[in-house]
Amino acid sequence: MIRPLQTALESNHYILSPSLLGALTPSHPGQAVGTLFEQYQAQGYLWLRGFLPRAEVIAFRRHFFSAFRDTGILAAGSDPAEGLWSGQAEDRALAAKRLMEVVRSAAYEAFCLHPRLWQFLDEFLGGPAYLHKRKIIRYTKPSEKSATGAHYDLVYLRGGTDRFCTVWIPIGDCPIEMGGLVYLEGSHARGQALETQFTQQNQALPPEERLSAFNKNMGEQGWISKDLPALAEKFGSRWLVADYEAGDLMIHSPYMIHAATNNLDPQGRLRLSTDIRYQNVRDEIDARWSNHWSLEDML
User: Fold this and answer.
1) Per-residue model confidence as pLDDT tens digits over 78-93
2) Residue 263 falls within a domain, yes or no?
3) Range 70-77, long-range pairs (CB < 8 A, 24+ positions)
């Protein structure tokens, strides 16, 4: 059951009615890894509650936003761990510079390589876990009207194995209204069918273009659609949502269709999250992901 929401969910100006919403099913991180892998294959995702130490996640949130004190994005005098938006336009060039500095920092690398996480993934992936160097960390302001459209991640990593998984970590509490990831229920099979279709359509393209999420056969930015309500209705499905808390993490299949909703947090907090990709190091690795993420890298 979903608790009563304080506001209607939006994504790219589309409203998600309650009839199109369902609840994500949590999994306990203390279960046997084999059992969790079976759940992952059946659902296309795992929601592992309290997987990381809450205090460490909050500490990294504070560290992250402390780097943005001089950009004008934070409310004056507020604790950076709160991530309270100033309500004013920030220095966008300076904020982008600070973001890229964090992306390349040892602190962020260490956060993504938390010992509990890589040790779990060694077992989950059946061999030594490899963390792709291209790692994405984003903050979202309450004022933003655009959000990530519906997509599945393999379209961006076609140059390697399809046995990777995406780990999405909310860095701080992220109630439904704050606009975390939403998942189209049972869609990992549909993602697989779509990729088979795109593979056939892309056969005549040059090799580089064939791998690209931005080729002529793909949608805007590699997305399936920005219209989340229409997509749910088309597939006779629901968008699954959750009140994420600091310490939770999501693991999802490269074929699982997911998106984000707008940040409508009534407290005016910035949403902060990271999405990173892990795979077995013995499988083929997409070489395009061997550099740090940059804002205009078109991946």
Assistant:
1) 999 999 999 999 999 9
2) yes
3) 70/94, 70/98, 71/95, 71/98, 73/139, 73/141, 73/270, 75/268
